[in-house]
Structures are given as C-alpha cells and as structure tokens.
Amino acid sequence: MATQILQKCSLCFATARQLGTLHAYASRRYTSHDVQTADIVISGGGMVGAGMACALGHESLLQNRRIVLLEAAPKKGFSLTEKYGNRTCTLSPASVSLFEKCGVWSKVENMRCQKVLRMQVWESCSNALISFNPTDEADEIAYVAENDVIQEALTQRLEEMKDRIEVMYNTSADSVAVPGVDKELASNAWVEIKLNNGQVLKTKLLIGSDGMNSLVRKTCQFHTLSLSYNQRGVVAVVKIDETNNNVAWQRFLPTGPIALLPMSSTAMSLIWTTSPEHANQLMSLDEESFIDAVNDAYIHDRDMNSTAGQVSDMFQKVLQNIMPGGVAMHQLPPIITGVQSGSRGAFPLGLTHASNYVRHRVALIGDAAHRIHPLAGQGVNLGFGDVIKLSEVIAKAAANGSDLGSLTYLKEYETSRQRKVLPVMATIDGLQRLYSTDATPIVLLRSLGLQATNALGPLKDYIIKGASSS
Ligand SMILES: Cc1cc2nc3c(=O)[nH]c(=O)nc-3n(C[C@H](O)[C@H](O)[C@H](O)COP(=O)(O)OP(=O)(O)OC[C@H]3O[C@@H](n4cnc5c(N)ncnc54)[C@H](O)[C@@H]3O)c2cc1C
Fold first, then answer.
1. Could you tell me if the CB of 11 is within 6 A of ligand 1?
2. How far away, in angstroms, is 41 Cα from ligand 1 center?
3. 425/403 Cα distance (integer angstroms)
4. From ligand 1's centre to the CA of 379, what distance in Å?
C-alpha cells in the first residue's frame, strides 16, 4: 500500500515536472490553451495507422495512456452494397492473426472477404509456371478483402474502443517539430505537432503512418530512396460465371504482370500493371473491348519465345520423370464476362524506402517507411508487420517503466523490420525487372528457375511461409 502511494506521488511529481516544462514551451512557442499532451500520437489513419491504433488499444499495459489517432480525411460512411470496391488487398495469415487479436477480423468476415486456396503464376514468353497449394488442403494462402471493408472494420473497432483511443477525423498534422531536428527543442523534449485546427499536441512518441508522402518522414530528414516504375496499376472489378472461385491468377507479360484475385463466386479483382500509355488506352476502352483485352492478356501466345519455349518444355519433361508430383498442370483462369461499371481506376507505381524508420520519439510504419510494387500483394502486409513489432516494443517499454519514445526500444523495432522489409523489397524489385524483358537468355533462365522452384516442394513451402509472416 505504502509503495503504491509512493509510486503515485512520484508519478504526480513527474507529471507536474513535465507540465511545468510543457508550459515553458507553450509560453515560448504557442498560447498555452492551444497545447495538449498525449503519450502516443499516430499521424495517419489509413489501414496501417488505424491498425496500429487498434493494436495499442489492446495493450493492457497502455490502458491509462492517452493515445490519439489523427486522420486528415473525414470519417467515411460505409455501407455494404452489391458493388465491390476496386481497391483490394491480399491479407497474409499474419495480418489475419493481428486482426483476430484486435477484434477486427470477425467484422471483416461479417462484411465480406474471400479465401485464396491456390495460386498460379506463369509467363507469356514460355510455358513455365509455378503453382502454390498449401500442404494442408484446409489452409488458405491468403484472404482477399476490399480496402473499404478493412478500413470500415478498423473504424468500427476504434469506435468500440473510444475510451482508450481518441480518433480525430478531419484533422491533419500541419507541421511537426522533432527534438534533434528542430534546434529550438531540447534534446529530450517531446515532439510538437501543430494541427490544422490551430491546436498543438505534444507527445512522447509520434508514429508516422501518413502514407508515401509522409510529412513525419520528411520532417525527420531521413534519407529516402524513391523511384518511379513508370508503370500504372489498372484496377477493376470483373465478373465471371458462378464458380468455386478461390484461385489467384498472375501472368507476367513483358509490359508487367496481370493479376486476378477472387472476391466472390462471381467477382474478381483485376490488377494489371502496364505502361502509362497502355493504361490510358485500357481506361478509355468501352466495356466490351476492355473485357476482350483482359481475356486476351491471359491466353495470347504472341510473346512466346520459341527457343525458350522448346528448352523449357524439354526441362518440364525431365522434371516430370524425376519428380512426378512436382510438375503443375497449366490451367486457365475463368473467362471474364463483364466489368462492374465505374470500377476502373489507374494508380502510379513506385518504390520508396526510408533509410531509417525511427529516431528519438518518432517511428514510421506502413507506406510512410516503405512502399513496394504490388506484384506480390505484400505492401499493406508489411505495414501490418510493422504494427505487430512496434506495438510489442512499446508494450515492453511500458512494462519496464521506460520512456515510450526511447530510442533503445525503437531501434529494436527498426532492426527487426528492416531485416524483414529489405529482402522482400529487393526480391519484388528484382522480379519486376526480371520479367520486364523478352531477351532470350533471360526468358530461358527465368523459365527454368520457375519450373525448378515449382518442382521443389520445400522451396515453395519456404516461399509461402515467408509471404505469410509479414
Ligand atoms: C494498385 C495497387 C494494388 C495494391 N494491392 C495490394 C495488395 O494486394 N496487398 C497489399 O498488401 N498491398 C497492396 N497495395 C499496397 C497497399 O495499398 C498500401 O501499402 C497501403 O494502402 C498503405 O497503407 P498506409 O496506411 O500505410 O498508407 P495510406 O493508405 O496512404 O494512408 C495514409 C493515411 O494518412 C493520412 N494522412 C496523410 N497525411 C496526413 C497528415 N499530415 N495528418 C493526418 N493524416 C494524414 C491520409 O489521409 C491517409 O488516410 C496495393 C497498392 C496499389 C497501388
């Protein structure tokens, strides 16, 4: 009892000390009535920022802390209609587990999502293909869900947790002052965030989840690698005849990969990566011509390289003899019969990577830290991987009674995530380049590589496990 009273007193003194310091800042830089404090501020309430808020809301060690989520956009109204959203994500098993832990997954399932039980990847320059089937037939590779559904499920969960997480919609961080960057701030001062409504929030830890043009990343002056693929991702919701739709199909064309992901027994999500000129053309086609273009992209053999085709056919026969179970049969995706009106859209594609994800009192997550090509459907999953690790290190700091913005803990987050993100990023960037050429030696090399990988069960299991772990 005596210890508890002493702890409470020392907390009061610490808080009084802290407030004193804050008022000193307040009088120097702002009028005091505009200044508020929070233990953690998350700037950016997209899927990753809202996921972070839910994860922190579930940490029992953070129950008495003030956690604020800022979102520049207004709160979106959402109602499930027959029309599907044209932006989708393939959620890995690790992301699904995070959602289960935070009470978000049941909401996604109650709205809609579709299991992916198999995946076939092949190319247009040869007959080489790889097919992923989980070892256990009941296991799914991933789930496909609309971004709007995921965002709505997170919004509903945050609404249920409003006593623990404050969400400020229509509120953007207009400028940020970070100790160590802003010369006016003492080295251990709190981060100061000026909001668009004139208020100032001071926090021990600012989490930047404000997307690819992150203000938080820019303010921290992290060296950032940014490149454009000079490609667009054309998306649409396409229709098929009713079928047991649980296979994801991806074909590499010299212009970029085209993917069809299952959404329901009659709908698929199309993500077609191509040149800006071709994307413009696809966007301007009438519906019938667009459907023809998609079906043609999956079946045409105009890119077939005869030398690579012959060698890879021979290699396939050899593999069939030595590993009879390892050779997958080539299948074709269902024929597209329609396109949901108004569902076509085109997005520029690029790569962004911050050399650091943290500094004292600041951490970046999601696209603010790393943005990758969507060809492997890993972007948001890497973001949710950040959420899992960062909430773990914050909880550890809280359990040890340490400063939540301490670099010691944040560095653990950065090291762990860069070990995961960098190899994924390099592999995806490499695949993107490898498949952007139709030069015979490269086509030959990649075709044989794909066939050999397909025949080697343990290697495929390793790839699936890697993609599942976020
Ligand atoms: C065509 C395409 C297909 C894709 N498919 C997949 C897929 O299948 N699987 C997958 O895992 N990933 C996929 N991705 C990637 C995925 O969409 C992104 O990785 C993900 O949306 C990033 O989420 P985020 O929350 O980090 O950033 P964002 O979605 O950009 O959210 C940032 C949020 O911050 C807010 N904000 C910005 N500035 C401020 C500020 N100053 N103050 C307050 N709020 C602010 C914005 O309003 C926004 O809500 C795809 C991407 C594209 C382009």
1. no
2. 18
3. 32
4. 9
